[in-house]
Amino acid sequence: MLIVADFGKIFIFIGLLLVVIGFVFIVGNKIPFIGKLPGDIAVEKKNYSFYFPITTCIIISIILSFIFWLFSKR
């Protein structure tokens, strides 16, 4: 059963997560290599464009997994 303090921690975590996501949206396109790695799929036609940054997603996933692994070793 969750108590009020647990809800507070959840809301603080969600707020910090939103701040980080907002920061990434603001600064993300200024980082030169993000989204332009070999293996990222980009298809551009006359009136259609498709972009899937698979390599970038894999690298970000590895980095986040390592960070969460470090914090879970308490």
Lay out the secondary structure.
Layout (H helix, E strand, L loop, with lengths): L3 H24 L13 E4 L4 E4 L1 H19 L2
Antiparallel strand pairs: 1-2
Pfam families: DUF2905
Protein name: DUF2905 domain-containing protein
Keywords: Membrane, Transmembrane, Transmembrane helix
Written overview of the protein:
Helix content is 58%, strand content 11%. With 74 residues, the protein is mostly helical. The chain has two domains: 30 residues; 43 residues, no CATH class. Strands 1-2 form a two-stranded antiparallel sheet. A hairpin with a 4-residue loop joins strand 1 and strand 2. It comes from Candidatus Scalindua rubra.
Quick rundown:
The protein has 74 residues and is mainly alpha-helical.
Strand content: 5-15%
- As for the number of domains, it is 2
Going by helix content, strand content and strand pairing, the class is mainly alpha
Biggest pleated sheet: 2 strands, antiparallel
What is the residue-averaged pLDDT? 82
Radius of gyration (Å): 17 Å
Quickly count the helices: 2
- Gap from first CA to last CA: 24 Å
Task: Give the low-pLDDT segments.
Answer: none
* Morphology call: elongated
Subunit arrangement of the protein: single chain
- Give the SSE order as H and E letters: HEEH
The helix fraction, in percent, is 55-70%
Largest beta sheet: what is the strand line-up? 1-2
Number of strands: 2
Protein name: DUF2905 domain-containing protein
InterPro entries: DUF2905 (IPR021320)
Keywords: Membrane, Transmembrane, Transmembrane helix
Pfam family, one: DUF2905
